[in-house]
Specification:
The chain is α/β, with parallel strands linked by helices. Helices cover 49% and strands 12% of the residues. It has 18 helices and twelve strands. Strands 5-12-11-6-10-7-9-8 form an eight-stranded mixed β-sheet, sandwiched between helices. It has a four-stranded antiparallel β-sheet with strand order 2-3-1-4.
């Protein structure tokens, strides 16, 4: 049942969800298209020079990481940003660079990623590289690093010279050794050996000096910051990401729509389903009638007469059957039909139920006891002046003179008559009791259309004189508090509450109309060519007359009943 409830909510509020999601997605798309593209460039700085050391120690790495964390703070320092703005001729104030420049240091890493965003790829690249160079220039060991770089350059040059001398000396030593091996003159051989020994000593001295210089280079490891990866030119913007923005906006719109729906449902305490009515009122639901559409005049609401084979007419017959089991169709029964508030469909229900009972062969009188706002005479196109109030005169006319026959066999109507000045007193009089008693003796069923029970006391007065009462609840309009109050009010009159009829009920929740339309379509095909009787009294389907046009609307093509 919960899953069915969710489907019902989706069908009811689907339009709101679609609108909110569509507006959010469309707004995000238009905003993203109107937003200038943003490009991001990233330069990478390396703290320390362990890349030149084949075996860096753990202490070297820790020192470099700590320095990287410290140097990253330089990226957004005013001195760095001011220098950058001046160097690249930044078009805005240098303070605005706070929002376009950032630095990131990976955990336990020795690198600093310096990122910059701009509206053009060239500007982003220039900005990132300039910031990286300024961080190097303004680092605490910048001067030391420059001096060390000078020394390193000198030492490296000297190493290259020593390496060339060592290579040349080794080649010359090889030549001397070969000459000494071939020499036979003792004096010349001694001179060659002396030259070879001196050259060997010179080569060994140069090698020792080369090794010492290599040690000097290694001593500066872990103290320097170097630009190892200049920022490349961005090829694609990083924002706006139109697809991502639209999807996120649609998700936000969906979340908002769901929240609005849940809030509306939480605040909406109206009765919508049979379960709601049973829970709030403690009464059985005897029927549910869909909304009637295409009502151009009051008589169009007489569905049981004008469209006897439509699904709504079938619902009134179902209501008639359920009331029969409650004993209402026993001879002399009086049924009060009322509602909590005006406009919930009690008059339309009373009229169609009276027609359905008369079509079943019962002698029925429909009594319009709403002396304040009568409407039965308008539905049946009758003169409302001659009615119930005439029977309260000192010399009342015979009952036959105020009863009105209808085109439905067995159905007569007693309209309300001229509105009196004291309707409650008239309905609570002994004369009203006698009138009801007379009607109950002459007819099988007396259907009483009364005013709303929560508006005036008339319904409570009439209820005490009837066999039972049927409450009309406007699905989706009658509030739970009103439904509980009307039950309490009628219980005080000690009337038998037979049950509830849901008016303007969404029949699609039950699937009934689909089944009925399927059955009707099949029967219509089987009976094509059948013609309704023309004498105006022939009965079909429980005494119902065939409609003139033979066309019956789908339940969704029905409108609001009075």
């Amino acid at each position: 049942m919960e899953l069915r409830r969710y489907f019902a909510l989706a069908r009811k509020w689907g339009w709101l969800v679609i609108i909110l999601v569509g507006l959010a997605a469309a707004g995000s798309y238009l905003y993203s298209r109107a937003t200038p593209p943003t490009f991001r460039a990233t330069a990478i700085l390396l703290v320390g020079q362990e890349q030149s050391n084949a075996n860096p120690t753990a202490n070297d790495i820790v020192v470099s990481n700590n320095l990287a964390q410290a140097y990253a703070l330089l990226v957004n320092q005013p001195s760095v940003l001011q220098a950058v703005a001046q160097e690249i001729s930044w078009e805005d104030s240098w303070e605005s660079l706070y929002f376009v420049v950032s630095a990131n240091v990976p955990q336990a890493g020795q690198t600093i990623s310096v990122s910059a965003t701009a509206n053009s790829p060239e500007r982003a690249q220039q900005l990132a590289n300039t910031v990286a160079n300024q961080v190097i220039a303004q680092s605490p060991i910048s001067r030391e690093q420059q001096a060390a770089d000078t020394r390193r350059e000198f030492v490296t040059t000297q190493q290259e010279l020593l390496q060339a001398q060592i290579v040349a000396g080794q080649k010359q030593l090889t030549d001397l050794t070969q000459q000494a091996a071939l020499e036979t003159d003792p004096e010349k051989l001694e001179a060659l050996n002396a030259r070879a020994a001196a050259l060997q000593t010179k080569i060994e001295s140069a090698q020792r000096t080369y090794i010492q210089m290599s040690g000097l280079l290694a001593q500066s490891a872990g103290r320097y910051i170097t630009l190892i990866a200049p920022a490349p030119l961005p090829t694609a913007p990083v924002s706006p990401n139109i697809l991502q923005n639209v999807l996120l906006a649609a998700a936000a719109g969906l979340a908002l729509a769901v929240g609005v729906v849940l809030l509306l449902e939480y605040l909406d305490d109206t009765i919508k389903t049979a379960q709601d009515a049973q829970r709030e009122m403690g009464l059985a639901v005897l029927g549910g009638v869909a909304r009637i559409h295409s009502v151009h005049k009051p008589a169009d609401t007489l569905i049981a007469l004008k469209q006897p084979r439509s699904p709504i007419a079938e619902e009134y017959r179902t209501l008639r059957t359920n009331l029969r089991y409650a004993g209402i169709e026993n001879s002399g029964s009086a049924l009060l039909i009322t509602s909590a508030n005006p406009g919930e469909g009690k008059t339309t229900t009373a009229a169609n139920l009276a027609i359905a009972m008369a079509q079943a062969g019962k002698r029925v009188v429909l009594l319009d006891a709403d002396l304040r706002r009568p409407s039965i005479h308008r539905i049946f196109a009758l003169d409302g002046a001659n009615g119930l109030t005439l029977l309260f005169l000192d010399e009342p006319p015979p009952l036959e003179n105020v009863l009105r026959r209808t085109t439905v066999d067995g159905l007569e109507i007693l309209t309300s008559g001229e509105p009196p000045s004291n309707p409650a007193e008239m309905l609570d009089s002994r004369r009203m009791t006698e009138i009801l008693q007379t009607l109950r003796q002459r007819f099988d069923v007396v259907i009483v259309d009364s005013p709303p029970a929560l508006v005036v006391a008339d319904a409570s007065i009439l209820a005490s004189r009837c066999s039972g009462a049927l409450l009309i609840v406007d699905s989706g309009r009658t509030r739970s508090e009103s439904a509980r109050q009307v039950v309490t009010v009628l219980n005080r009159s000690q009337v038998k509450l037979l049950g509830v009829m849901l008016n303007r009920f969404d029949g699609h929740d039950r699937g009934y109309y689909y089944k009925y339309n399927y059955y009707y379509s099949a029967s219509k095909k089987a009976k094509t060519g059948s013609v309704a009787p023309t004498n105006g009294s022939a009965q079909n389907n429980g005494g119902a007359r065939q409609p003139d046009n033979g066309k019956f609307p789908h339940p969704t093509e029905q409108t609001r009943q009075d």
